[in-house]
Write a structure and sequence with these properties.
The structure is a homodimer of 131-residue chains.
Chain A lengths: L12 H14 L8 E2 L2 H8 L3 H13 L3 E4 L3 E4 L9 H20 L4 H16 L6
Helix pairs in contact in A: 1-3, 2-3
Chain A binds a DNA duplex (30 and 30 nucleotides) through helix 3.
DNA sequence: TGTCTGATATATAATAAATATAACAGATAG
DNA sequence: CTATCTGTTATATTTATTATATATCAGACA
């Protein structure tokens, strides 16, 4: 995992980090059972505070993407990942809807939109286009 | 325009309102030249502060979706809307990427994803599924 | 016995979001 | 002319979020 944070971004660090790890899982760069750095080590590597990393891990744990063992450390969930729940679908809608609406205003066709989505999907699978 | 705000949402009020208006434009419920309520009236109607509305209008103006005339009021841009710029495409990517990555982790297929996007696109055009 | 885990507590600083008032300049209807 | 409506601007305050700085605790382990 090469993790780079964008300190200029309006997205909080702990969210950026969460997303990076999710992308790592999606691209199979991170496999079930793989270890993640300890809270303190990752904080040191990224030059941020321990609590910021802890917040990210707690989020990922709550969603079922990682397991946290008190003394062993943090691992990508070896028992598989959460499914597509109604809650998640709702999140998809709420996130996509405003952007798609703006795309329509700007004259983007449905085909064009789907093409962009497809490309992003592929890029993630191939682990590319990472910032 | 029936505008309802979700005070429970984590999205700021001024952003929610911006999105509602963008959706109104996308669904052609709001047409070029149509007037929008004055800052003070809308604030009163929604039960929020004047500055919150003003922030929304300034955002929409900066992006070219509305025009603001000092004494006449606010109208949906009669000269047409902004195009699909590189900046906007970048915003699409950055917004979609984390969600699509999570969708992949949860086992959603590409076809399933595109189907959801297509549905959202249609829903907006039809002015439905509004909250 | 150190040293590593995560977990937890407390305090502080910086920023963003929202509100509360107030005042200003220009247009316009009475 | 006056009152009222625009958007604009300024100032101050409150609240919540984000991030940091320290510190401590309990369990595991070499």
């Amino acid at each position: 995992m090469f993790i780079s944070l964008d300190l200029q971004s309006d997205a909080p660090i702990y969210v950026q980090l969460r997303n990076k790890i999710i992308e790592g899982i999606a691209s199979k760069e991170l496999l079930p059972g793989d270890p993640l750095p300890s809270v303190r080590n990752l904080a040191k590597d990224l030059g941020v505070n321990m609590h910021t990393i802890n917040k990210t891990y707690q989020l990922l744990k709550a969603d079922g993407f990682i397991q946290i063992h008190r003394q062993k450390g943090v691992v990508i969930n070896p028992d598989g990942f959460p499914e597509v729940t109604d809650v998640f679908l709702e999140k998809v809608k709420e996130t996509f809807r405003p952007i798609i609406a703006e795309a329509i205003c700007r004259g983007m066709s449905k085909e064009e939109l789907l093409s962009h989505c497809e490309k992003i999907f592929q890029d993630i699978l191939e682990g590319g286009n990472r910032k």
